[in-house]
Structures are given as C-alpha cells and as structure tokens.
Design goal:
This protein is α+β, with helices and mostly antiparallel strands. The protein has two domains: 13-160, Orthogonal Bundle (Triger factor/SurA peptide-binding fold); 163-259, Chitinase A, domain 3. It has eleven helices and six strands. A three-stranded antiparallel β-sheet has the order 1-2-3.
Length: 301
C-alpha cells in the first residue's frame, strides 16, 4: 500500500500590530498625513519565517493592479500637498472635534450592525471580520482617518475661500442646436437645472449641472466663460474638449464670491458647518490636486 500523504500545516500568518493613536491626542498635527519617517519599509505580516514588508506589497500591487498602485501614489501626493498647506497656513485640527466626528461615525456603524445583524454579531466581531482588527486598534485608526479627512476638508475649503470664485451650472451636448435652444429657453425664464438634467451629457446632469465654487485655477474648459458672467446670466454656446471629443457647452452663473484674506482660525467654525452641509467632493479633491501638484514637481528630487 502506498504511503499515505499527510497534509502539512500552513505556516502561521502573523499581522504586524497597528500603532494606536491615543483618543483625544493633542498632537494631531498635519504630519499625520505624511509617511512615518522612522518606518521606511515597515513589516506588514509574517508567514512562518518570511517577513513581508510595505515595499513587497507595493511591488505586488504594481504587477497585479497597476492602476490601483498609481491611485495609491496619487493619494500619497494628495496628502503631502494637504500637509504642506496646513503647515503653511497654520491649520490644526481640534482633537475634540476629531473625537466627536469619529464617535458619531462609530455610533452609526454600531447602529447599522445592530439593525442588520441583531444578536448574531457585536461590533467587535464585525470589525474583526471586516477589517481584521481588534476593536481598540480600529477605533484608533478611525480617529486618525477622521483627522486626516478633516485636514483635507479644511485645507481645500480654506484655500478656496481665499480667492475669487464663481459658482455655476453647466450643460454639455454634442449638438449645437440643442445648446442654442437651452440658451434661448434660459434667457426666456426657464430653469437651467431642469434643462441640464434633461439634456446634458455630463455626469453632473444629476445635480442640474451644478459645480462647487471654483477659482480661476480650476482645470476645466468652462472657467473662462464662467468668470465672464454675472449671477443670472447664461453664456452663449461654445465648443471645447469633453473627454476625447468636441462638445458644445453652456454655462449659467449662480454666484460670484469675492476672495477673503482671513486667518484660518477666524473661519474654522464656518468651514466646519460648510463641510457638514456639503461634504468634500471627488471633483474638489481632483481639482485641488491638479491645481497644486506643481508645487511638488518643483521640488528637486
């Protein structure tokens, strides 16, 4: 009889511990957005005697999902920009504010777990199964991530209110005749948002073509036309690139917002309210990165 093959146990996988951030830590400075200087290639996991590090994970990600790897780099660049602007303008998060926002998010998640899973799973078990983290480590990570998001919102909204801005709705269509008809109807009293929802070929149509307030440095084909309008005015149709093709644009001005030369501390509460009512959008993040990335490109490598 052939010898029976006995399966060998898999080597143990040991995750590196998460470095906790004390709740209410007063040292939540902009540097939390930056990579840790004393961990250039930190250990992530051990598989038996083999140590896997951050560089291994990134190399593997480049091979398996190159676009995802590029996205990770873009996120790092974004955070470096935010940290530098926070330091430049004296922007500092309030630990009490971080704690309040993180606690509210934790309560919301706990309520969702209770509603959907009832007595079958508590929050600690849910966190472990979903994130592979102990509850205390997850809470520390949640607070750190909350502080990072708050810095992002503070920096982007603060820099925006310091410059002259305009807020508009816009419409994009491949047919010049449609664009002409929209202008005629708006000038006759029709609601631009309704027309954009009906006719625009841009994803912003779902919000009636609405864009967040932007300055002259905003990377978008409508900028020049937008700053040539006063509130209540619609532009004449104009052709510009939209993706890979030429399209016809119409812009409608909602408001002109003059820049305010003011210290961050004087507008912190205003920005907090603004972020509660209107969370930071992906469009704002992308526009900020495109606008300011040149600052990093100018630094000698």
């Amino acid at each position: 009889m052939a010898d029976r093959v006995v399966a060998q146990p898999a080597p143990p996988v040991v995750l590196a511990p998460v470095e906790p951030v004390p709740v209410g830590d007063p040292a939540l400075g902009p540097e939390i957005l930056l990579p840790s200087a004393d961990e250039p290639d930190a250990e992530l996991v051990r598989v038996g005697d083999l140590v896997l590090r951050k560089s291994h994970a990134y190399s593997r990600l480049q091979t398996a999902h190159p676009k995802l790897a590029l996205s990770a780099v873009d996120l790092l660049v974004f955070d470096v920009l935010v940290a530098r602007h926070a330091q430049q303008h004296g922007i500092q998060v309030d630990p009490a504010r971080v704690e309040a926002l993180a606690a509210a998010e934790e309560r919301a998640i706990a309520a969702q777990v209770a509603t959907e899973l009832g007595d079958t799973m508590d929050l600690a078990t849910y966190v472990w199964r979903l994130f592979g983290m102990r509850l205390a480590d997850w809470r520390a990570t949640l607070r750190r991530r909350t502080a990072q998001r708050l810095y992002q919102g503070y920096v982007i909204r603060y820099l925006a209110l310091r410059e002259d801005r305009v807020q508009v709705r816009f419409l994009v269509h491949k047919d010049r005749a449609v664009a002409d008809e929209v202008v005629d109807k708006v000038r006759g009293g029709a609601d631009f948002a309704t027309l954009a929802l009906r006719w625009s070929e841009d994803p912003s149509r779902r919000d009636g073509g609405l864009l967040p307030p932007f300055g002259r440095g905003f990377q978008h084909p409508i900028v020049e036309a937008a700053f040539g309008l006063q509130p209540g005015q619609a532009s004449a149709p104009f052709a510009a690139r939209h993706g890979e093709e030429q399209r016809w644009f119409v812009v409608y001005c909602l408001a002109r917002l003059p820049g305010r030369e003011v210290a961050f501390a004087a507008v912190r509460d205003e920005i907090d309210r603004d972020l509660e009512e209107r969370p930071l959008s992906e469009l704002e993040i992308n526009a900020y990165t495109l606008r300011w990335r040149g600052e990093l490109d100018a630094v000698p490598k």
